[in-house]
Amino acid sequence: MTSTDAYKGPAIELIEVAKHYGKTMVLDGVNLDIAPGEFIALLGPSGCGKSTLLKLIAGLDELSAGEIHIAGRLANYLKPSDRDVAMVFQNYALYPHMTVAENLGFPLKMGGVDRDVVRGKVEAAASLLQLSAQLDRFPDQLSGGQRQRVALGRAIVREPYVFLMDEPLSNLDALLRVEMRTELVRLHKRVGRTTIYVTHDQVEAMTMANRIVLMKSGVIQQVGTPAEIYAMPANIFVATFVGSPPMNLFSGRIENEGGRLLFRGPFELAVPPGFTPGPVTIGIRPEHVALCNGGEKSSLAAMIDAVERVGPDSYLRTTTAQGIALTARVEGSAKAREGDQIAVRFPLAHLRLFDAAGNRVPMGEES
Amino acid sequence: MGLDAATGAGVPLGRLRLSAEEHRRLRHQARLRRELTGWLFLAPMFACFVIFLVLPVIGTVWWSLRSGGLGGETKFIGFRNFTDLPDTVGAGTAITNTLVFALISVPLILIGALAIALLLARIERGGSIYRFLIYFPVLVPGVVAALIWLFMTNVDFGLFNEVARALGGKPVVWLGADHALTVLAILDVWRNVGYWALFFVAAIIGLPKELYQAADLDGASALARLRYLTLPLLRRMIFFAVVVATIWGLQVFDTALVLTNGGPGTATTTVIYRVWLYMFGATNKIGVASAISLVLIIAILLLTLVQMRLLRGRRGGD
Amino acid sequence: MVATIQLDAAQHARKRVRSRRQREFARHLALGLIAFILVAPFYYVLLASLKDSTEIFSYPPKLLPIPLYLGNYRDLLWDTGFLRWMFNTLFVATSVTVIKVFLDSMAGFALAKIDFTGKRIVFMLMLILLMVPIGALIVPLWSLVSTLGLINTYLALILPPLANPLGAILMRQFILGLPRDLENAARLDGLSEFAIYWRIVLPLIKPGLVVLAVITFTDQFMSFTWPLIATTSDELQVLTVGIAALRAHGGANYGLWSASAIMSLVPIGIFFFVLQRQFLARSLAGALKQ
Predict the structure, then answer these.
(1) DSSP string over C54-67
(2) Buried b or exposed e, range B245-264, using 16+ CB within 10 angstroms
(3) What is the 3-state secondary structure (H, E, C) of A258-319?
(4) What is the DSSP letter of B125?
């Protein structure tokens, strides 16, 4: 595949990609460029279209509109096996009547590769994934984790231009999942191929991806690095989808009070100039909520309802004096008990403002 | 193949490469290819299906509206074959015989099958031997079964009359005009009870065991379990069995031919038998034969539709 | 107090076990009786086939075939076309089975996995006409086959049974049960549709293929109505028609008839006994799934 290696443009371009089944619109006007070697996570709740998008890229489904380019070539009408992509399925899709070795070697065999070469590549992939002892077994004799690695191996042997993964870890138990996460990242660093990874687990996406594509109802909500998405969410959906516990949100209005802009809601907050008055939502993440002494002007009083100790941190579930729920994160060693009265402050730099439509409005100096 | 061979060199990137029309054309091509593949796989079987099933059904309708003989000229006569049906020789008898036959055999088959299934489902050891023995008559061709029964019903030395004599009774003319149809029905029961018995065994085994454990705890007797638990749970399967067994019962022919030649007289002439007589017998009346066949086909189709409606209603579609 | 309670518990257990065993015994008794009634006629006929004509009419009947008389079998195999009939039946049944398994699995594959216009209509049509038997269609079927010039050929016996949609419906059901992404993986690996059918689907529905094969074979073995009118020459008689002819022509030769009955059971008996475990288990599983 020398020409794909020599190709310098985006590995994958999605241009106005749309897909509908009858009257239901599953994907609507998706535009995206993916650079070679990137690890992209397609993140979103179930039904957002991420798996459909993956299948369209793979060629397992037909586009209703738009174009998909792979390595600069129009891929819409190419057969899946001509697109130089390999896919790892959620349920592994291993051939039950073939051994692990045969499963691994099958794509190569179909490509007409010489038998000795096939064996070499199979053994290489098997040792990379610690499957060498399982080569002569059948899928139903393997554990879930092993099966998952065979599915991975089958994609690896093809040395494709792009790896497509459809929630490959969701059928594993929690411990194994974390292990495999690091494995996959390590593999990606080593093999260096463009990877598109579909998941509904934001922790997975945040820890594994170079860039995250967050989707909802067939529309891309935001594309960015994990840090960008976390710190600068494009809208309320992104802000609450990523980060756990989710961002605290307060709705209210910005009003012009004699030349000064004021946020009026469950509390009052002075707002720097430059904003249009109107209904808004203010958000702040639990870890940015600062405890202070009650006396300050912009502080808020709240009573602790519950304290969740999660290892090195604690989450304080509180209710403000105005009756709004607020979650704050403090260090685990902090002394806090149910029923305590605390005062909190929202540092301006960490406040996020969202307009009536839910989109974020930049606030000037942000960090 | 790969990306190189599959497409040509690109035009400036990041922009739609083909016009909407070209896309439509290519998409159309891909769809056509898919349709062709689908039909290619389906075609051989579907061709046989159309030629040897659908066409004959249409043909039956066609000829039922005509009169004439095989290999000769036929005239269109409208629905006369049907309106004349009550007067057509043997038609009414055939239909009555077949209905009576089904009325006797089907309930007996199913009740017997259920009884056997209830026993088999609970048996602990040796079940498979019983299954094999009970299922064995199912595998016997109708003509062979009829021969066997011909033998057993023989007035002088048949098994039945031997048993009757041993019990001190009188020998019976089993295949005489009074009993022939009944004997034919019992023959059918003997042949088919094993099939449905295994069917019900599978159904019973599939019932949730927890319900029975709960019933045991509640102190339900075996009869109560049967009445309030097993039978209601099996309702859909029983209904299915009734419809299918009836449809099969309506087709009886080979046993009637070999056992009694449709007699004595026309006592055991069934619908298909009568059709055969009209087709290949002395009277070569293709129109009448088709009309009678059509009556049978419609009966079967109605039963099928009833069945589909009921199954679909509960499950909400396939 | 505790001691008496314990005693009662033990007594209870014994009583329960006893009554359970009693019920099991009763079941065996009932089933044994039923099985006996169902199978006894075969033994009776077997006996008759081994007796000569004088013995058959004797009373009281002997329960053991002594002296053994094989003349009936000799007459059957030598003087009638029985062997020819048997060959025809086995040939036709095997041909139909082999062809049908492939045709129906391909059709089932298309119905289950490929999207094409008219799929729903075709499937509906098959469901509706599923139960219409060949017997009800003998008039036009005969006319069609004779127009095609196929009367009295093996094709006349082999082709019409292929029309039965049960196989296609069954195969579709089995193929629908395969994991969804399996063909997607195969497509990505570069398999053509036919290769997916041949290398992935077929091996994985083997139990279904076996069920279809057994059903088809036994159906063909026992079929009577259509072969009766489709073949008139002696060369092509199938077993069922030949035996019926024996009944029609020969006057009351019970010995010959019984021999023919027993001989006709041999292939099916062997076939079924060999497959017995598998078939019963599989058809039960198949029924349960639906």
Answers:
(1) HHHT-SSPPSS--S
(2) bbbbbbbbbbbbbbbbebee
(3) CCEEEEECCCEEEECCCCCCEEEEEEECHHHCEEECCCCCCCEEEEEEEEEEECCEEEEEEE
(4) S
Residue A300 pairs in a beta bridge with A344
Q: Residue B70: which of B281, B292, B291, B279 has the closest Cα?
A: B279
Strands (E), B56-160: 66-68, 74-76
A87 contact residues in C (CB cutoff 8 A): 184-185, 188
- Tell me the nearest-neighbour CA distance from C39 into chain A, angstroms: 41
Distance CA A53, CA A217 (A): 12
Residue C56, token pair as written in the block: 């058959």
Taking each continuous run of H as one helix and of E as one strand, the counts in chain C are 15, 0
Classify C217 as helix, strand or coil: helix
Q: CA dihedral in degrees (B278, B284, B286, B288; nearest 10)?
A: -50
What pLDDT does B53 receive?
Answer: 95
Return the SS3 of A90: coil
Q: In which band, very low, low, confident or very high, does the pLDDT at C55 lie, cut at 50, 70 and 90?
A: low
Judging contacts by C-beta atoms under 8 Å, the chain B residues touching residue C60 are 162
Whether the Cβ atoms of residue A313 and residue A331 lie closer than 8 Å to each other: yes
Residue B51: Cβ-neighbour burial (10 angstroms; 0-12, 13-18, 19+) = middle
> Chain C closest CA to B290's CA: distance in Å?
6
Helix residue spans in chain A (DSSP H): 2-6, 50-58, 100-110, 115-128, 144-156, 174-191, 202-208, 226-231, 236-241
φ, ψ of residue A302 to 5 degrees: the values are -150, 155
Residue A199, beta-bridge partner list: A43
The rounded distance, in Å, linking the Cα atoms of A322 and C59 is 108
Structure tokens at B38: 């689908």
- Comparing C-alpha atoms, which of C218, C203, C196 is closest to residue C114? C196
State the residue for tokens 């048997």: C86
Task: Please count the other Cβ atoms lying within 10 Å of the Cβ belonging to residue C185.
Answer: 29
Record the tokens describing residue C245, joined without a space.
């002819």
Pairing, β A162-166 against β A194-199: parallel
Cβ contact B143–C244 (<8 Å): yes
Mention every residue, 6+ apart, whose C-beta is less than 8 A from residue A150.
A92, A94, A100, A103, A104, A129, A131, A134, A139, A142
- Candidates C226, C130, C224, C227; CA nearest to C169 is C130
Q: What per-residue confidence (pLDDT) applies to A197?
A: 96
Chain A residues touching B26 at Cβ < 8 A: 76-77
Instruction: Count other Cβ atoms within 10 Å, centred on residue A168.
Output: 25
Is pTM, for the whole model, over 0.90?
Answer: no
Q: Which of B97, B140, B143, B141 is nearest to B272 (CA)?
A: B97
Report pLDDT for B4: 43
- Roughly how many angstroms between the first and final C-alpha of chain C, as a whole number? 55
Cβ of C190 within 8 Å of Cβ of A96? The answer is no
CA distance A217 to chain B (A): 24
Residues shown for chain B: 318
Q: What is the mean pLDDT of residues C9-15?
A: 76
Beta bridge partner(s), residue A194: A162
Output the CA–CA distances (angstroms, integers) from residue B215 to A61, B212, B228, C27, in the order listed: 51, 5, 10, 21
> Which residues face A212 on adjacent strands?
A41, A224
Highest-pLDDT range among B151-160, C104-113, C234-243: C104-113
Q: Widest CA span of chain A, in angstroms?
A: 82
- Single-letter amino acid, residue C114: I
Mean pLDDT in residue range C233-262? 84
The interface predicted TM-score of the complex, written ipTM, equals 0.83
Averaged pLDDT score across all residues of chain C: 84
DSSP-assigned beta bridge partners for residue A179: none
Q: Compute the distance between CA of residue A147 and CA of residue A96 in angstroms, rounded to an integer.
A: 11
